[in-house]
Amino acid sequence: MLQAILIGLIGALGQLDSVIGSLYTFRPIVTGFLVGVVLGDIKTGLILGATLELFFIGSISMGAYIPPDALVGGVLATAFAIHGGLGVEAALALAMPIAVISMGFKNVIYALTTAICAKADDYAAKGNTTGINVIHFGISGIKMLNAFAWCFLGYYLGADVVVNLICGLPEQIVTGLEIAGGILPALGFALLLNMVLNKRSLPYYFLGFVLAASFDASIITVLIIAIIIVVAIWERSKGKEADVNEDF
Amino acid sequence: MKTSNDGKKLTKKDLQEIAWRSLPLEASWHYERQQHLGFCFSLQKALKKIYEGQPEKYIDALKRHTGEFFNTAPQAQPFISGLVCAMEEENAAVDDFDVSTISAIKVALIGPCAGIFDAIFLSTIRIIGTAVGASFCMQGNPLGVAIFLLAYNVPAFICRFLGVGLGYHTGAQFITNLEASGMLGKFKDAAALVAMMAFGWMTKNYVGLTLGYTFGPEGAEMTVQGVLDSIIPGLTSLGLVWLFWYLLTKKKMSVMVALVLTVVFAIAGTYLGIF
Question: Which residues of B touch A111 (CB under 8 A)?
């Protein structure tokens, strides 16, 4: 019970992110760690959190796109997996369905929010900033309550059900899930690729890949090489533009 | 647009307060007007000071910023707030100021600002932070969480606190200069280059599928994985990412369908002994 409340609070804390500056504390890499702390297995929490972060890497709100809810999906999938000792694969398979369902309910809240926000115009007309701010922060309170309810109830009511369900599966299906777990990050990456892909930077994607594949380069090595290339390109273009634009 | 440098009412402290008050920008986000209340919240104190002794204009300004749609990258919002304050000040100083220019400049700025800052923060810094942070977390090191958060937020706070002053003092001119110099495009290209290299690295290291299927004569069996690895290690990972990319963008497959297909494929493959 106490653990379930704490899991719920992690959800609320993740939602608080929008009040404290959109710091991205609601992402699975952060919540996974916190769930690990609550359930007494920090190492697994970190690994699950990082894996789910990669899986949800393309699920971000850019512009007005509302992505699957990586907060509730990440918290519950990590909590279920640690609770039942299920492993990364099960967490990956569970996270997206949970995130999509939670997103659906969130949309209902957003619709409700629109109705409440209309009241803010009346307060503005009276110069009542307190009224405007009560609405502004009150709404985030509603959202926090929603995230708390999902994570708390999901864990309190669902943890044993989900774990028993998965543990009762035949061995070959479990192995199949493990394999799917290896494949699924590719799906998350494809979503991100869809957002960031452009022809000019595409060769550098393959350069980063080859450095990792053929030379086993670390991420730091790859970043240093990337910065060297950027500087080299800037230096060259500087030489070309020197006559045209003396300011740079 | 002209913003004269004399007669500025807001002090450095006032501007910093705008930056602090910009933190809860997305607290009441919703579909219709999105960040409008958060934007209004960031300006309230400054507007009160700007319109001291002009209650009607003050209420007009509150109505303006509460009522109007607003949505941009959180890191860019203080810049826009600063710029809007400079214009509100002009409105306070003269009687026949056309307030519709304030709304117009807001509308003109939110899109490009979101584009630039999302490209920098979401598509670049976040990916690099994730790549480095996750590599620590995968080994069970909580330092990875701190790296992820600091990588993303230290630049974000710098942008907020520098941005508000830039917006207030140099205003729209800053954007015009930046565009004219071509620096913006160069910067975006550079950011994309670094992000894509990190992303390529992640494709090799964070997607894992091993094909256990063997073929060839007994005693000299070869594994499919062995053959692929001898070409380039990690070729299966690369292939998978692009296969999903093709299905999602070219075939318009939904993420859930792709997820279910993957699980079905993996289980079927296990029964058939492909893996």
Answer: 30-31
Cβ within 8 Å, pair A19-B122: no
- The answer to whether the Cβ–Cβ distance between B207 and A120 falls below 8 Å is no
The one-letter amino acid at B97 = F
Which residues in chain A show pLDDT less than 70?
Answer: 62-65, 240-248
Mean pLDDT to the nearest integer, B165-169:
91
**Tokens representing B31?**
């579909």
Q: What's the longest Cα–Cα distance across chain A?
A: 73
Q: Sketch the domain layout of chain B as residue ranges.
A: 12-198, 208-272
Taking an 8 Å cut-off on Cβ atoms, the answer to whether A234 and B209 are in contact is: no
How do residues B168-194 score in pLDDT, each as one tens digit? 998 767 767 777 777 777 887 888 899
Q: How far is CA A112 from the centre of its chain?
A: 24
* Chain A residue with Cα closest to B188: A201
> Closest Cα of chain B to A49: distance in Å?
8
Count other C-beta atoms under 10 Å from residue A132's C-beta: 27
Per-residue pLDDT tens for B98-141?
888 899 888 888 888 888 888 889 888 999 999 999 999 999 99
Alpha-carbon span A196 to B199, nearest angstrom: 10
Domain ranges (residues) in chain A: 2-197, 198-248
Per-residue DSSP letter, B214? E
Give me the interface pTM, i.e. the ipTM: 0.86
Tell me which residue of A181, A186, A183 sits closest to A77, measured CA to CA: A181
